[in-house]
Amino acid sequence: MPVRPQDGAARACNAPPVETAPLPELVLAARQRAVRYDHARLSAIVRSALPDCVAVSIRLGGPLSSIRTVECSVVGSRTMAKIHRDFLGERGATDVITFPYGEIVVCATVAASRAPEFGHPVADELALYCIHGLLHLAGLDDAAPSDADRMRREQKRILKAAAMAQRPPNGKKTNKEWPQHDQ
Fold it and tell me: What whole-number distance in Å separates Cα of residue 103 and Cα of residue 67?
Protein backbone atom coordinates (compact mmCIF):
# COMPACT_ATOMS: atom_id res chain seq x y z
CA MET A 1 0.00 0.00 0.00
CA PRO A 2 1.57 3.35 -0.97
CA VAL A 3 2.48 5.81 1.76
CA ARG A 4 2.22 9.55 1.20
CA PRO A 5 3.91 12.09 3.44
CA GLN A 6 1.73 14.45 5.43
CA ASP A 7 1.98 18.21 5.10
CA GLY A 8 5.19 19.94 6.21
CA ALA A 9 3.90 20.86 9.67
CA ALA A 10 3.07 17.25 10.48
CA ARG A 11 6.44 16.04 9.22
CA ALA A 12 8.22 18.72 11.26
CA CYS A 13 6.77 17.30 14.49
CA ASN A 14 7.72 13.74 13.50
CA ALA A 15 4.15 12.57 12.97
CA PRO A 16 3.96 9.21 11.20
CA PRO A 17 3.05 9.32 7.50
CA VAL A 18 -0.58 8.74 6.56
CA GLU A 19 -1.22 5.50 4.70
CA THR A 20 -3.29 5.87 1.58
CA ALA A 21 -4.86 3.58 -0.93
CA PRO A 22 -5.99 4.25 -4.47
CA LEU A 23 -9.53 5.58 -4.54
CA PRO A 24 -12.10 3.22 -5.99
CA GLU A 25 -13.87 4.27 -9.15
CA LEU A 26 -17.21 5.76 -8.12
CA VAL A 27 -20.22 5.16 -10.35
CA LEU A 28 -23.38 7.10 -9.49
CA ALA A 29 -26.32 5.64 -11.40
CA ALA A 30 -29.70 7.37 -11.62
CA ARG A 31 -32.17 4.48 -11.87
CA GLN A 32 -35.43 6.31 -11.18
CA ARG A 33 -37.31 9.23 -12.71
CA ALA A 34 -39.99 10.15 -10.17
CA VAL A 35 -37.89 12.35 -7.88
CA ARG A 36 -35.95 15.29 -9.24
CA TYR A 37 -32.60 16.13 -7.66
CA ASP A 38 -29.32 17.76 -8.64
CA HIS A 39 -27.26 14.79 -9.84
CA ALA A 40 -24.16 16.95 -10.37
CA ARG A 41 -24.32 18.17 -6.76
CA LEU A 42 -24.80 14.62 -5.46
CA SER A 43 -21.81 13.47 -7.51
CA ALA A 44 -19.62 16.36 -6.35
CA ILE A 45 -20.38 15.81 -2.66
CA VAL A 46 -19.90 12.03 -2.74
CA ARG A 47 -16.69 12.27 -4.78
CA SER A 48 -15.39 14.85 -2.32
CA ALA A 49 -16.25 12.53 0.60
CA LEU A 50 -14.66 9.42 -0.90
CA PRO A 51 -11.05 10.06 0.25
CA ASP A 52 -12.19 10.53 3.88
CA CYS A 53 -14.23 7.32 3.71
CA VAL A 54 -11.22 5.42 2.31
CA ALA A 55 -9.08 6.84 5.15
CA VAL A 56 -11.59 5.45 7.66
CA SER A 57 -11.40 2.11 5.84
CA ILE A 58 -7.61 2.06 6.11
CA ARG A 59 -7.80 2.90 9.81
CA LEU A 60 -10.38 0.15 10.49
CA GLY A 61 -9.21 -2.42 7.97
CA GLY A 62 -12.54 -2.29 6.13
CA PRO A 63 -12.99 -3.52 2.56
CA LEU A 64 -13.54 -0.08 0.95
CA SER A 65 -9.81 0.56 0.66
CA SER A 66 -9.43 -2.54 -1.52
CA ILE A 67 -12.61 -2.31 -3.63
CA ARG A 68 -11.90 -1.21 -7.21
CA THR A 69 -15.36 0.12 -8.08
CA VAL A 70 -18.19 1.38 -5.90
CA GLU A 71 -21.58 1.75 -7.53
CA CYS A 72 -24.18 3.91 -5.84
CA SER A 73 -27.59 3.52 -7.47
CA VAL A 74 -30.39 6.00 -6.85
CA VAL A 75 -33.68 4.10 -7.06
CA GLY A 76 -37.37 4.70 -6.40
CA SER A 77 -39.45 3.34 -3.56
CA ARG A 78 -40.77 0.23 -5.39
CA THR A 79 -37.29 -0.91 -6.36
CA MET A 80 -35.95 -0.20 -2.87
CA ALA A 81 -38.85 -2.06 -1.23
CA LYS A 82 -38.15 -5.09 -3.44
CA ILE A 83 -34.42 -5.07 -2.59
CA HIS A 84 -35.23 -4.58 1.09
CA ARG A 85 -37.58 -7.59 1.04
CA ASP A 86 -35.40 -9.83 -1.15
CA PHE A 87 -32.12 -9.28 0.70
CA LEU A 88 -33.09 -8.30 4.23
CA GLY A 89 -36.53 -9.88 4.56
CA GLU A 90 -38.13 -6.57 5.57
CA ARG A 91 -41.13 -4.82 4.04
CA GLY A 92 -41.17 -1.31 2.63
CA ALA A 93 -38.59 1.08 1.27
CA THR A 94 -35.61 2.17 3.35
CA ASP A 95 -33.05 4.92 2.85
CA VAL A 96 -29.88 2.95 2.06
CA ILE A 97 -28.75 -0.65 1.64
CA THR A 98 -25.07 -1.50 1.29
CA PHE A 99 -23.70 -4.71 -0.17
CA PRO A 100 -20.19 -5.79 0.89
CA TYR A 101 -18.88 -6.08 -2.66
CA GLY A 102 -19.23 -2.33 -3.24
CA GLU A 103 -22.83 -1.70 -4.24
CA ILE A 104 -24.84 0.96 -2.43
CA VAL A 105 -28.52 1.47 -3.18
CA VAL A 106 -30.18 4.70 -2.03
CA CYS A 107 -33.84 5.66 -2.26
CA ALA A 108 -34.74 9.01 -3.83
CA THR A 109 -38.32 8.78 -2.58
CA VAL A 110 -37.22 8.44 1.05
CA ALA A 111 -34.67 11.25 0.56
CA ALA A 112 -37.35 13.54 -0.91
CA SER A 113 -39.58 12.94 2.10
CA ARG A 114 -36.77 13.56 4.64
CA ALA A 115 -34.84 16.49 3.07
CA PRO A 116 -37.44 19.20 3.92
CA GLU A 117 -37.30 18.16 7.58
CA PHE A 118 -33.62 19.18 7.64
CA GLY A 119 -33.88 22.16 5.32
CA HIS A 120 -31.55 21.00 2.60
CA PRO A 121 -31.82 19.75 -1.00
CA VAL A 122 -32.71 16.15 -1.89
CA ALA A 123 -29.21 15.75 -3.38
CA ASP A 124 -27.68 16.44 0.05
CA GLU A 125 -29.92 13.84 1.70
CA LEU A 126 -28.93 11.32 -0.98
CA ALA A 127 -25.26 12.24 -0.39
CA LEU A 128 -25.75 11.45 3.30
CA TYR A 129 -27.11 8.02 2.37
CA CYS A 130 -24.19 7.37 -0.01
CA ILE A 131 -21.67 8.40 2.66
CA HIS A 132 -23.46 6.16 5.15
CA GLY A 133 -23.06 3.27 2.71
CA LEU A 134 -19.39 4.12 2.12
CA LEU A 135 -18.81 4.08 5.88
CA HIS A 136 -20.37 0.61 6.10
CA LEU A 137 -17.87 -0.46 3.42
CA ALA A 138 -15.14 1.29 5.44
CA GLY A 139 -15.86 -1.04 8.36
CA LEU A 140 -18.29 0.92 10.53
CA ASP A 141 -21.51 -0.63 11.75
CA ASP A 142 -24.60 0.91 13.29
CA ALA A 143 -26.35 -2.08 14.86
CA ALA A 144 -25.46 -1.21 18.48
CA PRO A 145 -26.28 2.25 19.86
CA SER A 146 -22.63 3.11 20.54
CA ASP A 147 -21.66 2.02 17.02
CA ALA A 148 -24.54 4.06 15.57
CA ASP A 149 -23.32 7.13 17.48
CA ARG A 150 -19.82 6.68 16.10
CA MET A 151 -21.16 6.29 12.56
CA ARG A 152 -23.33 9.40 12.90
CA ARG A 153 -20.31 11.42 14.08
CA GLU A 154 -18.16 10.21 11.18
CA GLN A 155 -20.82 10.75 8.54
CA LYS A 156 -21.61 14.22 9.90
CA ARG A 157 -17.91 15.16 9.85
CA ILE A 158 -17.39 13.81 6.34
CA LEU A 159 -20.64 15.20 4.90
CA LYS A 160 -20.00 18.62 6.40
CA ALA A 161 -16.49 18.79 4.93
CA ALA A 162 -17.63 17.51 1.52
CA ALA A 163 -20.75 19.66 1.31
CA MET A 164 -18.93 22.81 2.44
CA ALA A 165 -16.89 22.52 -0.74
CA GLN A 166 -20.20 22.79 -2.61
CA ARG A 167 -22.64 25.69 -2.25
CA PRO A 168 -26.34 24.84 -2.06
CA PRO A 169 -28.08 25.43 -5.39
CA ASN A 170 -29.73 28.62 -4.07
CA GLY A 171 -26.35 29.95 -2.90
CA LYS A 172 -27.51 30.17 0.73
CA LYS A 173 -26.34 28.22 3.71
CA THR A 174 -28.98 26.64 5.91
CA ASN A 175 -29.15 27.18 9.65
CA LYS A 176 -30.07 23.59 10.29
CA GLU A 177 -27.57 20.89 11.20
CA TRP A 178 -26.76 18.12 8.79
CA PRO A 179 -29.09 15.18 9.25
CA GLN A 180 -28.76 13.37 12.54
CA HIS A 181 -31.38 10.74 11.85
CA ASP A 182 -30.60 7.06 11.82
CA GLN A 183 -29.64 5.46 8.51
Answer: 10
